[in-house]
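Journal club prep, notes for RB
We'll compare a predicted complex against what the paper describes. Inputs for the coenzyme A case:
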Amino acid sequence: MPARSADDVRIETYGGARDNLRALFELADDSAAELDSYIEAGRVLVAVSGAEVIGHLQLTGTGDPRQAEIKNMAVREARQGQGIGRQLIQAAVDLVAAEGVTLILVATAAADTGNLRFYQRQGFRMRSVERDAFTPATGYPPGLLIDGIELRDRVWLDRAVLVRVHLTGDRQDFEVPASDGAFEGTDDRAVVVVRPEHVQRLAILAERDGTRADP
Ligand SMILES: CC(C)(COP(=O)(O)OP(=O)(O)OC[C@H]1O[C@@H](n2cnc3c(N)ncnc32)[C@H](O)[C@@H]1OP(=O)(O)O)[C@@H](O)C(=O)NCCC(=O)NCCS
């Protein structure tokens, strides 16, 4: 059978019971106790192929309205490596950009070098390390190895949310960090309302792009 691509996949907001997604959540977290503590939290996007959910991404808040966290995400083993994870991340970024979020956080195991690669390929950068975050006290079995590395430390990464600034006429669009503007959400895209203190910076960015901004 030929390898499938992600062409058949659509990303949707999930409204069903979280328990139905538990097997997917478990791919990303080895602690049942930890999972119980957050599985009902926040919102979930799902990757759907036909009638089947083949991947998910859970988005939660952090207490700071300008931040969102990818709390748990996974793609079914048979469909990994086909760009579905990338699609889920992009959908999450688009969703929170329209809500005024300027930074997305994610945490993963330092031992999981595959995940570290995946998130960095999606534009995330290292933020901090929480040593000994994965312990028997938090429900992680002792001596668990990932790729021969003991599961111990948690790495936090973050990615600035960029928004596309639409200039009128034939001027080229360009992207700025969401933290540079205020936002009004419309049905499917964010409209940037530029604050006076950012006008000069945006004009410089636009000129660098070969256009002249008249904000
Ligand atoms: C991590 C995960 C969600 C990525 O989803 P995916 O659909 O396989 O990822 P994509 O196909 O969109 O991959 C995008 C890129 O990341 C790379 N990548 C993804 N997973 C990788 C891994 N384990 N090791 C190395 N590279 C990886 C892909 O090769 C691809 O690279 P490219 O941009 O050079 O082509 C998925 O592998 C998964 O479900 N893993 C198990 C659960 C898990 O660990 N979740 C994360 C918890 S923090």
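Talking point for the session: The longest helix spans residues 84-97.
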